[in-house]
Amino acid sequence: MSAAAGREPGGPQRLYVDGEWVAPDGGHYEVIDPATEGVVGLAPEASRNQVWQAAAAARAAFGPWSRASPQERAAVLDRAADVIQRDLAAHVELARAETGATTATARGMQVAVAAARLRRYARGALEPVETGLPPQVHEAGPMGGAAVLGAVAVRRPVGVVTCVTSYNNPWANPAGKIAPALALGNTVVVKPAPQDPLSVYRLAAALAEAGAPPGVVNVVSGRDTDVGAAAVDSPDVDMVSFTGSTAVGRRIGEICGRTMKRQLMELGGKGAAIVFEDADLDAAVAGIGTTFSFYSGQICTAPTRVIVQRPVYEPLLGKLARYAGRLRVGDPRERDTVVGPVISAAHRERVESYVELGRKEGARVVTGGERPPVATGRGFYVAPTLLADCAPGMRVVREEIFGPVVVVIPFDGTGEAAEDTAVALADDSEYGLLSYVWSGDVARAFRVAGRLRAGGVGVNTVGRNMEAPFGGVKQSGVGRDCGSFALGSYSEVQALVWPGGAP
């Protein structure tokens, strides 16, 4: 058996617990390639007891790892990035096969981003953890004589962190949790999404090869919901970092609340994209069109809900329809493919059911709406779909579809009245992750952005600055990730106070 991979070549994957590759109590299940419907590999099904063993191993490793020097922790993260880059081609192929992402996306946005995040938090391990505070003068009183008290706020590791990761990016998403957690001195139990866990075991193998001590990183997988529940309710777990649906996030929050476990939640989204009449429509279409192409719309940050001023409503629809029509849907391994499959047959049916619901609610299907033909006749493909003439109360407008479907709502008015209407429509949602504003008037764009209830707003762009805080408001999440903000999220703040003598 390959110690690095935790499996015989071509054989079933094992769990990774306390530095050992462990046979799963629940056997194995098949991981399916969404593009071919073939078997990618066999993933392990952990038992509740094995998950708790992983958490206990992380608890035992926490003391030594938290006391390791920042330089030691940084070196492990840097070496892990080297290992991932060394085996880049194999990792890209696995990521593509597990997720159905195009080869370019698997390389550039999955595996490469995972390596970059490890390097970013190798530097993060060396960032100062202390913040000096102004001294405070105390006059003589019942508590003692006059004195000056000094103070400093210090970030300390939380302890054992359970990382529950999403299926749309099994490299970047886990790395974005594991790396800042380890940088601060935490230890982790990783529970990957059941659809594509094999990549996460490769990430764990890279960290092990890089010198992460036993118990610092543990990975346990399974389709049974009790596997995830055990990773959350273990008494050895101090914090849960979760990326996924709002419904699952609520259940995790309820469990965490019983013992006051810390939480970092990146949940659902229904990104509003406001397009004013003075916008560069081509730029807006290029941004909104990423909903069709990027991960086949399986991304919570997508601008799926377009709110467009009436004078440019039909022109925008025409441009979006032509954009969608040019996108090649098919085998993600082929160079000119832009839209690959969604993750599973069940998810394809869910997305298609929303399109049909939109029809029944009165939306006009401008393009898409039918299952696209592909050369092989296999795979879980959904055509890029544009729904026009939508109204705020429609379920397709209010609920997260998580597929290549864009809904468009017109609005009327001019000047401040138009801004008020656009903001009201955008905020008429239980979600508040990322929203977007397109306008040729930059002052107006920033003014409107400041009024939106969203964790982030893109002004004339869907691009992200990865040093900026990332997270949502309302039911899109709790806490902030990315950059140095992630270091804060995976730490507790301790106050140290001392006497500085009499003034």
From TrEMBL:
Molecular function via GO: oxidoreductase activity, acting on the aldehyde or oxo group of donors, NAD or NADP as acceptor
Alphabetical UniProt keywords: Oxidoreductase
A Pfam family of this chain: Aldedh
Cytoplasm keyword on record: no
UniProt-listed InterPro entries: Ald_DH/histidinol_DH, Ald_DH_C, Ald_DH_N, Aldehyde_DH_dom
Protein's UniProt keywords contain Cell division: no
Domain Aldehyde dehydrogenase: from-to ranges: 21-495
Family affiliation: Belongs to the aldehyde dehydrogenase family.
Protein name per Swiss-Prot or TrEMBL: Aldehyde dehydrogenase
